[in-house]
Amino acid sequence: MSDSDRDAASSAAVLDELFATIESRKEALPEDSYTASLFTHEKGENAVLEKIGEESTETILAAKDDDLDELTYESADLVYHLLVLLAMKDLDLDDLREELRERF
Ligand SMILES: N=c1c2ncn([C@@H]3O[C@H](COP(=O)(O)OP(=O)(O)OP(=O)(O)O)[C@@H](O)[C@H]3O)c2ncn1[C@@H]1O[C@H](COP(=O)(O)O)[C@@H](O)[C@H]1O
């Protein structure tokens, strides 16, 4: 495997690795983890739902400004919070992949 193939494979795995980390935070609930704080928040699931609302707005504003760096940054924030929501609802990336695959 070439270096660029290895880099591409590593990039492709990042969502799975991030989701596995989110699941492990959900299980262990370490005190210093932002992710864990979303699972234990006093607002319940509203905490992550509000973040998804905020990050969606910030993503839209970045797109309207044509600020591609900001669009990438806010999109990553949005995807991360969406993955936390899926984990909260006991869904996972395979559920998402399956839904997308059915639309092909
Ligand atoms: N990918 C993320 C990730 N994306 C966003 N965030 C957090 O989401 C929060 C977003 O807050 P804000 O809306 O205030 O965003 P901001 O970027 O500070 O500011 P603006 O968007 O308003 O400009 C910040 O606290 C970010 O740190 C994330 N926190 C954690 N992760 C990953 O989650 C995994 C577990 O990390 P812990 O949560 O530290 O255990 C690790 O792999 C991390 O890389």
From TrEMBL:
Keyword tags: Amino-acid biosynthesis, ATP-binding, Cytoplasm, Histidine biosynthesis, Hydrolase, Nucleotide-binding
Any single Gene Ontology cellular-component annotation: cytoplasm
Signal sequence extent: none
PANTHER family (UniProt xref): HISTIDINE BIOSYNTHESIS BIFUNCTIONAL PROTEIN, HISTIDINE BIOSYNTHESIS BIFUNCTIONAL PROTEIN HISIE
UniProt keyword Nucleus present: no
GO molecular function list: ATP binding; phosphoribosyl-ATP diphosphatase activity
Gene3D superfamilies: MazG-like (1.10.287.1080)
Enzyme Commission number(s): 3.6.1.31
Enzyme class: hydrolase
A Gene Ontology biological process term: L-histidine biosynthetic process
Pfam name, any one: PRA-PH
UniProt-listed InterPro entries: HisE, PRib-ATP_PPHydrolase-like
Catalyzed chemical reaction(s): 1-(5-phospho-beta-D-ribosyl)-ATP + H2O = 1-(5-phospho-beta-D-ribosyl)-5'-AMP + diphosphate + H(+)
Pathway: Amino-acid biosynthesis; L-histidine biosynthesis; L-histidine from 5-phospho-alpha-D-ribose 1-diphosphate: step 2/9
Keyword Nucleotide-binding attributed: yes
Species name: Halorubrum aidingense JCM 13560
Family from the record: Belongs to the PRA-PH family.
Name of protein: Phosphoribosyl-ATP pyrophosphatase
Location(s) in or outside the cell: Cytoplasm
